[in-house]
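User: Sorry, folds how?
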Amino acid sequence: MDRHRTARISNLLAIIASAFFAAVGIAGYQRTDDIRQLLLFAVLAAVAFGVVKLAFYGINRLLDKIE
């Protein structure tokens, strides 16, 4: 249940953050042909998605306590 209506904002910011790391990884791979670099940025994209979702989970809990 999204009482504070932060789900859309959370999803949007998480997708933007992960897309940024994915784009940097793809651009770097095209320049260097280093698969490790591509995999590193793919992992960073997943971690960034999780961090943003976790941050908004904390924000929602904080807003629940304020009410």
